[in-house]
Automatic annotation (TrEMBL):
Residues 17-164 form the GAF domain. It catalyses: L-histidyl-[protein] + phosphoenolpyruvate = N(pros)-phospho-L-histidyl-[protein] + pyruvate. Its EC number is 2.7.3.9. GO terms for molecular function: phosphoenolpyruvate-protein phosphotransferase activity. The gene is ptsP. InterPro entries: GAF, GAF-like_dom_sf, PEP-util_enz_mobile_dom, PEP-utilizing_PTS_enzyme, PEP_util_C, PEP_util_CS, Phosphohistidine_dom_sf, PTS_EI-like. It comes from Thiorhodococcus fuscus. Keywords: Cytoplasm, Kinase, Magnesium, Metal-binding, Phosphotransferase system, Sugar transport, Transferase, Transport. This is phosphoenolpyruvate--protein phosphotransferase. Belongs to the PEP-utilizing enzyme family. It is found in: Cytoplasm. Its cofactor is Mg(2+).
Length: 753
């Protein structure tokens, strides 16, 4: 049966359309199990019915014509329970309903398996037997496995309109879900892009002359640098200066020791240039892939993009010219920044990728260009949509393929509303983020890209609320020295002076290992990381703190932040080391000053010790992303449990309140620097709690400012009071949506509201 399963799955995956896939399933399953009938019923939720869509054994003219009211009969029971039902004699079951038009009254044995996608039952795969028969456990497992194979095909058929064409009056089209990366509505034609060179296909090969390979590799790197400069020149009229930093980041990665020296050493060790490049890129990308931090994990795609570009020049390939539609929606499994830059700006109206997230370079670039984008649309069959009309809903990360007239008309209206909203938000530039009753809420920027000479959002932000220091360590093949670190920190401190810059000390280890400082742990999320590793390796911590303190000389806008704190002892030890670094520098003649020092509250243990922590430091910063994951025991990057991750969970809200209460006892300010800070819905809660400042990505600054300038703290407290009475996250979200709609700002999170 295992071999039958393998063959059927292969046939279904190769089927060019849904109807053929269904026909293959019913024919082959009937044969494999030895049943008399195999059928597929699809659930039409809009019209409240189950539709017989394919059958082998029932009357052929019943297919597509027989409909059963939703929830009726054994088909309805399987859908309700979302689990298989196996009966010796279906006619004796109280929910059994005989449908004469199918000719099924002659049958007794019954096995119904639900077809499930994302917890939703899309239909039922049914086996019938004339005699009484209880299907075996292996047969049930076999049928359930095949039912799961149909789920993805059915989902795509709904969104593409294929299923609507199969049925008389059609089922309204569905969307393909993804991750919102850049807000806005894009309507246009799909243009599919793909990598021109395949690193994974490169074999190892001994070079005839290693020095020739070295020369060719260096030449290819130089060619890619020229490409970057050319693409940067093409886009400079469409991007602000700070957005252009993305191209600088690529160039810095090209010049990094790890990439260049690693490849050269592999060439000299006996591999030709393409093979050495493949090994280096694989090793470097793996480091990022294994990270929990979404911002850093997305750097893996940047590394692979660079590797493909270098390989293309090594192979003397040139990508053929792409024909871009007047309204192009760029689609791919992994889109690079250069592929985006290659599209004439006036033609690019949307971006869709099956991988990645809003933290990827593609997401950052899309937001900087104002292009609607959806990432992680994993169900999208890229190879089948070239030239199709598409709609990209960048607010919700939704994608529609071949939308019908009603869907297209509605999104055209939403696009017009969105354009009006974007224009309105621009009028808020340089205005204070102040509530209607005069409470000022500074809005800071989260940043940390190694080459961000001018980070996104520099003009609008009150400073930097979180500067990540990990990336300069990761792109090297050894720990950076004090001087190199100081130059990095000085750059950002000078750029924002006199506005404050909060620099977080090194947060590596566990799920963020360095290539030259490897470690293996069974559970990296709870392992040796953050403040734990820097206290165990004080020389690393002291070197970094010395570099940070020296970088702030004469600027006085530094704030120092300690990550992953779980005990007061860690803070005490870190403070001693910081004072030691400070005193050493004074003795050496450097006019350094002791900066304000804070701790990140991102571990539940720290929540319950907020008062003790506040007594020791000058401010607190709440990392809501990690705090939510730890409180709910949910890895939001795990697709099996990601839906359970919710920052509106009552436990998260109560934890935030406890943090603010503990900090208030010692007069300490509390900032929120996780994604919650950039969510317009959450502003009611955070203002109501009394959060002093917010730090977020550049794309959220104006939207959050719009909410703050539209409400009073008194109104925020009223909403918070009701939210704290809610028992689940869904109720909290509905309350916040109503509150946002109440001040006429629903369009910030839902277009057309």
């Amino acid at each position: 049966m295992l071999e039958s399963l393998r063959r059927i799955v292969q046939e279904v995956n190769n089927a060019p359309d849904l109807q053929l896939a269904l026909d293959i399933i019913v024919r082959r399953v009937k044969q494999a199990v030895g049943a008399d009938v195999c059928s597929v019923y699809l659930n039409d939720f809009e019209n409240h019915r189950h539709v017989l869509q394919a059958s082998e054994g029932l009357r052929p003219d019943a297919v597509g014509r027989v409909r059963l009211e939703l929830g009726r009969g054994l088909i309805g029971l399987v859908s309700e329970r979302a689990e298989p039902i196996n009966l010796d004699d279906a006619a004796n079951h109280p929910r059994y309903e005989c449908i004469i038009d199918t000719g099924e009254e002659r049958y007794h044995g019954f096995l119904g398996a639900p077809i499930i996608q994302n917890r939703k039952v899309l239909g039922v795969l049914v086996l019938r037997q004339r005699r009484r028969r209880h299907f075996g456990e292996d047969e049930v497992t076999f049928v359930m496995t095949l039912a799961s194979q149909l789920a993805g095909a059915i989902t795509f058929a709904r969104t593409s309109g294929e299923l609507a064409r199969l049925q008389d009056d059609g089922i309204p089209q569905r969307f393909l879900p993804g991750l919102a990366a850049s807000s806005g509505i894009g309507i246009g034609e799909a243009v599919v892009v793909y990598p021109p060179a395949d690193l994974n296909a490169v074999p190892d090969r001994r070079p005839d002359d290693p020095e020739v390979e070295v020369h060719e590799f260096r030449r290819a790197v130089g060619d890619v640098i020229q490409d970057l400069e050319r693409f940067a020149a093409r886009t400079q009229n469409h991007l602000r200066a700070e957005d252009m930093a993305l191209f600088d980041a690529w160039r810095l990665m090209l010049e990094s020791d790890t990439l260049i020296d690693g490849t050269l050493s592999r060439i000299r060790a006996g591999n030709w240039a393409p093979g050495a490049l493949r090994e280096t890129i694989t090793e470097h990308a793996r480091v990022f892939d294994n990270m929990d931090d979404a911002y850093l994990r997305e750097r893996a795609s940047d590394v692979r993009d660079l590797g493909r570009c270098i390989l293309m020049h090594l192979q003397n390939q040139a990508a053929g010219p792409v024909e871009y539609a007047p309204r192009t929606i760029l689609v791919g499994e992994e889109i690079s920044a250069m592929q985006i830059a290659d599209v004439p700006r006036e033609r690019l109206v949307g971006i869709v990728s099956t991988t990645g997230s809003g933290a990827s370079h593609v997401g950052i670039l899309a937001r900087g260009m104002g292009i609607p984008a959806a990432m992680g649309v994993s169900d999208l069959p890229v190879s089948r949509i070239e030239g199709r009309e598409m709609v990209v809903d960048g607010y919700r990360g939704r994608v529609y393929v071949s939308p019908g007239p009603a869907v297209r008309s509605e999104y055209q209206r939403l696009a017009e509303d969105d354009a009006a909203l974007t224009s309105e938000l621009q009028t808020l530039r340089h205005l204070p983020a102040e509530t209607t009753d005069g409470y000022l809420v500074p809005l800071y920027l989260n940043t940390g890209l190694v080459s961000e000479a001018r980070p996104l959002g520099i003009e609008e932000s009150a400073g930097v609320g979180l500067y990540r220091t990990e990336l300069p360590f990761i792109v090297r093949d050894s720990f950076p020295g004090e001087g190199a670190q100081m130059a990095n920190y000085r750059q950002v401190l000078e750029l924002f002076a006199p506005r404050p810059v909060t620099i977080r000390t090194l947060d590596i280890g566990g799920d963020k290992p360095l290539p030259y400082f490897p470690m293996q742990e069974a559970n990296p999320f709870l392992g040796w990381r953050g403040i734990r590793i820097t206290l165990d390796q004080p020389e690393i911590f002291l070197t970094q703190v010395r570099a940070i303190l020296r970088a702030a000389i004469g600027l006085d806008n530094l704030r120092l932040l300690l990550p992953m704190v779980s005990t007061v002892g860690e803070v005490d030890d870190a403070l001693l080391l910081i004072r030691r670094a400070h005193d050493e520098l004074l003795e050496e003649g450097y006019q350094v000053k002791m900066p304000p020092i804070g701790v990140m509250i991102e571990v539940p243990a720290a929540v319950y010790q907020t008062e003790a922590l506040a007594r020791r430091v000058d401010f607190l910063s709440v990392g809501t992303n990690d705090l939510t994951q730890y409180l709910l025991a949910v890895d939001r990057n795990n697709p099996h449990v990601a839906k359970l991750y919710n920052e509106y969970h009552p436990a998260v809200l109560r934890a935030l309140l406890q943090i603010l209460t503990g900090a208030k006892l010692h007069g300490r300010e509390v900032s929120v620097c996780g994604e919650m800070a950039g969510d317009p819905l959450a502003i009611f809660l955070l203002l109501g709690m009394g959060v002093h400042s917010l730090s977020m990505g550049a794309g959220s600054l104006l939207r959050v400012k719009r909410v703050i300038r539209s409400i009073s703290r008194a109104r925020a407290r009223e909403v918070l009071k009701v939210a704290l009475e809610c028992e689940d996250a869904g109720a909290v979200r509905r309350l916040l949506l109503d509150a946002l709609d109440g001040v006429g700002l629903g369009a910030l999170v839902r277009p057309g509201k």
